[in-house]
Design a protein that fits this description.
six-stranded mixed beta sheet; disordered N terminus; five-stranded antiparallel beta sheet; single chain; mainly beta
Length: about 600
């Protein structure tokens, strides 16, 4: 089974809360088992949503030798736990694929044998974010085998599925469309003649590109079709050169709808990986060789960031072993020179690749190391070189069929199946590349000196434990560590509030916001005027932003005539500006 390449989807609003993330080092976490022990499971596929949402799907022999489709999910919010494996299909189902949209809505597709028509059907099941998987629906018609389904979702959750189907005379590529929340439209033939191995990609707006390999009577060539969001499929177009047999076509698109297709083509003596690009609403360019001649390069994969940075990977022979190579293409440039990713002297094959919105890349593959097959990975920060391979699966028992996906923040998830001595099991390992996510973040934009402001955050990390507490720096030399607190600035001004938090593997997130503090409102602070002359009392009251109120007179044995005998309110009271201060003036001793 081949991994479907989704267009990089729009970044979730959750990640807008992360103004900056400093990573100690992207860290691969230990593998976890996803499938049920004692029941064989194979060929996992993976899709990631924002903030740690993950869905993994595979086929498994649960209660009989006939496999069923199963799924496990990892939900955002910091639980860092996987759901128990759930069965989605009936017996005799294979070839599962899965996709997630930015809101966390999932769509799974597979092929299943239909006893009544004695043929394979393509089926689909949807799961709304936070909901349950719906009953499977048939997308293809019974009577002729349909298989190899591929699925893609756009940013709004609209879906396209393509597959290949025998129509009684030849194999054709079909497609079906489902608006988000709506019903599946009838399947439509996209190709003519003998066409197989379809792939599909969607940009965030819903514009689609599909490719497949087509036998023209002499050779197999790559064909492509496009479909604007809500529109009709175009006529197939040949995009590989005539007279050269090709295989394994793949396609990816960026956020603007620019497309890149890759494939392996035979030059008569060996195979070469090629690529062609199509600007949005433009024509496909001429194929370009990515691998060197004489190396038998095949099984290419391609991924594109939303900005158009592309990475292609493939396997090729160096004369002694099969090694994994990669080439990088900047959005505004051409393809770079191919680079070896796997270590020399060991067989490495079946590479996969994913690129996050920032252009960071993750590749995975299977290598034969120390006498057994292991899953390995390499990462490439945007604009930098590939790192050394890392082994993800445990030694001792073989692991196969690695797949990888990335989320909008740059975390990745690799999945594979591995023999545990009794059965094949599904495993997953996360690449924790960024720090915690600041959910429910509250930082006021304005305030008043002397008046408390409320600050709060609910941090969580997609894959690791949190380390320590949220650290607030209020920009005036004061700090605090709490999830919820109040703080009052003592003086007017503009302050930069910075919140930071680390996870257990050393990744730190930080966000800075500006809060503007207005001066405290002018108040009447009642002065002490008892004993002062009326004139001086009035002057003191005025200086304190108060007003002289009623002035009464009374005899007093202790206070000289003309001086303040009593005041109301008492000195020290804080009152609104212009509050009245009533006075009693001494008339001296009664005569």
């Amino acid at each position: 089974m081949r991994r479907v390449h989704l267009a990089a989807l729009a970044v979730s609003l959750v990640f807008l809360l992360l103004a900056g993330t400093a990573s100690a080092a992207a860290t691969w976490l230990s593998p976890v088992d996803l499938s049920v022990q004692g029941r064989a499971a194979w060929n996992p596929q993976v899709a990631l949503g924002p903030a740690g949402d993950a869905t993994v799907i595979w086929y498994s022999a649960v209660d009989s030798p006939n496999p069923v489709i199963q799924e496990a999910s990892h939900t955002a919010g910091g639980s860092r736990t996987w759901t128990a494996a759930e069965t989605l299909s009936g017996d005799t189902a294979y070839g599962a694929q899965v996709a997630l949209d930015p809101a966390g809505n999932a769509l799974a597709v597979w092929e299943r044998f239909d006893n009544s028509s004695t043929s394979f059907l393509v089926q689909a099941s949807a799961r709304p974010a936070g909901g349950a998987w719906e009953a499977p629906q048939n997308l293809s018609a019974p009577g002729h085998d349909a298989n190899n389904p591929q699925v893609a979702l756009d940013a709004a959750g609209n879906a396209i599925v393509v597959w290949q189907r025998w129509n009684g005379a030849t194999m054709v590529v079909q497609g079906a469309v489902r608006p988000f929340g709506g019903a599946w439209q009838a399947a439509q033939d996209l190709s003519s003649g003998y066409a197989t191995d379809p792939q599909v990609a969607l940009d965030p707006a819903g514009d689609a590109v599909a490719v497949w390999q087509y036998f023209n009577g002499s050779n197999t060539i790559v064909q492509a079709v496009t479909r604007p969001a809500g529109g009709a499929w175009s006529t197939p177009q040949d995009i590989s050169a005539a007279g050269q047999s090709v295989s394994f076509p793949q396609v990816a698109v960026d956020a603007a709808g620019n497309a890149i297709a890759v494939w392996a083509r035979s030059n008569g003596s060996n195979t070469i990986v090629q690529a062609a690009a199509r600007p949005v609403e433009g024509a496909w360019g001429s194929p370009q060789d990515l691998s060197a001649p004489g190396q038998n390069a095949d099984l290419p994969e391609v991924a594109v960031s939303p900005a158009g940075d592309a990475v292609a990977v493939w396997q090729r022979s160096d004369g002694a072993n099969t090694i994994v190579q990669a080439a990088v293409r900047a959005a505004d440039g051409g393809w770079g020179t191919a680079q070896d990713l796997s270590a020399a002297g060991q067989n490495s094959d079946f590479p996969q690749v994913a690129v996050d919105p920032a252009g960071n890349s993750v590749a995975v593959w299977t290598s034969y190391e120390n006498g057994t097959e292991v899953v390995q990975a390499a990462t490439r920060p945007a604009g930098s070189a590939w790192g050394a391979p890392q082994t993800l699966s445990a030694f001792g028992w073989p692991a196969f069929h690695a797949q990888v996906a990335v989320d909008p923040a740059g975390n990745a998830l690799a999945v594979w199946y591995r023999y545990n001595g009794l059965n094949m099991i599904i495993q997953a390992a996360a690449l924790d590349a960024v720090g915690p996510i600041f959910d429910d973040l509250t930082i006021p934009a304005t305030g008043t000196a002397g008046k408390p402001l409320a600050f709060s955050v609910s941090p969580f990390d997609a894959w690791s434990q949190l380390f320590g507490s949220p650290h607030w720096d209020f920009g005036d030399g004061t700090t605090s560590e709490a999830s919820t607190l109040t703080y009052a600035y003592h003086a007017q001004g503009s302050y930069t509030v910075t919140l930071s938090q680390s996870d257990a593997v050393g990744n730190q997130s930080s966000v800075s916001r500006t809060v503007t503090i207005a001066p405290a409102p002018i108040q009447c602070v009642v002065p002490k005027v008892v004993g002062k002359t009326l004139a001086k009392a009035k002057a003191a009251i005025k200086r304190r932003h108060c007003r002289t109120g009623r002035v009464a007179r009374a005899f007093s044995k202790k206070v000289r005539s003309g001086r303040v005998l009593a005041q109301r309110p008492k000195a020290g009271k804080h009152l609104p500006k212009g509050a009245r201060v009533n006075l009693v003036i001494s008339r001296g001793k009664r005569r």
